[in-house]
Design goal:
Length: 213
């Protein structure tokens, strides 16, 4: 719960603090909805009607800032997005805008129908993640891949467990090949429960450590 919002906040923080630019391939929200959400995170105020709504001047300034730091890789409904098509557009964004980060959200909304006959899902996921990691290193960018877990079973108290890399449908490679894994979790059975951010894997120890906040 809250994966996209967490990544959105992370992007805004990096853009504000370090002037990072991002290419965003998000399939669960239209770009205009995503842009308004980035503007809300940036200003700390509402875009639409409601209490503490941003003024027209704040809206114009926030839109300008988002436009300068985010490029939305939208196909305009012309074709389903594949990893190849996203990386092709991201490559251009790196050269033209100096993009430092790429968001792919979520994995299961990509078009995976071009998987070759005879190739298992495990083999496909392995090649997919290798291609993504190679692109990140070749272009010196960071890639965040948002992935939903497979159906989880509640425990005897009716609470869902915290998912991890092995919980993603398709392959254990999601855990094995990732440099870092973060799970955003909320106990949906308790409306008062805080959202938990679990850092479950850090390949390079000088970059951080496992833990929960």
């Amino acid at each position: 719960s809250g994966k996209s919002n967490f990544v959105g906040q992370l992007m805004v923080n990096l853009a504000k603090d370090s002037d990072w630019k991002f290419a965003v391939a998000s399939f669960e929200n239209q770009p205009e909805i995503h842009i308004s959400r980035m503007m809300e995170i940036y200003t700390g105020k509402r875009f639409f009607e409601g209490k503490d709504r941003m003024s027209e001047a704040e809206r114009d300034q926030a839109f300008k800032w988002v436009n300068e730091h985010f490029l939305f890789l939208d196909t305009n409904g012309e074709e389903p997005s594949t990893l190849d098509s996203i990386l092709d557009r991201a490559r251009v964004a790196v050269k033209r805008m100096g993009v430092r980060g790429l968001i792919i959200d979520p994995y299961n909304e990509l078009d995976h129908t071009k998987r070759k006959d005879g190739v298992s899902e495990t083999e496909y996921v392995s090649v997919f993640l290798t291609q993504m990691r190679k692109f990140a290193r070749d272009n010196q960018i960071h890639i965040w891949l948002v992935a939903h877990p497979a159906k989880l079973m509640k425990d005897n108290k009716g609470v869902y467990p915290v998912p991890d890399g092995y919980s993603v449908s398709g392959s254990a490679h999601f855990f094995n090949k990732a440099d870092n894994i973060i799970a955003v979790h909320r106990d949906t059975s308790n409306p008062q429960a805080a959202t938990e951010v679990h850092v479950q894997k850090v390949r390079s120890r000088w970059l951080g450590r496992r833990g929960v906040a």
